Amino acid sequence: MTLPLSHPALSATDPELAALVGAEEQLQADTLRLIPSENYVSQAVLEASGTVLQNKYSEGYAGRRYYEGQQNIDQVERLAADRAKALFGVDHANVQPYSGSPANLAVYLAFAEPGDTVMGMALPMGGHLTHGWGVSATGKWFRGVQYGVRHDTGLIDFDEVRDLALKERPKLIFCGGTALPRTIDFAAFAEIARESGAVLVADVAHIAGLIAGGAHPSPVPHADVISTTTHKTLRGPRGAMLMSREEHAKAIDKAVFPGLQGGPHNQTTAAIAVALHEAAQPSFRDYAHAVVANARALADALLARGFELVSGGTDNHLILMDLTPKDVPGKVAAKALDRAGIVVNYNTVPYDPRKPFDPSGVRIGTPSLTSRGLTAAHMPTVAEWIDRGVTAARTGDEDALAAIRAEVADLMAAFPAPGLPTD
Question: For residue 359, what are the contacts with CB-CB under 8 A and spacing of at least 6?
Answer without folding.
Answer: 329, 330, 331, 346, 347, 348, 349, 352
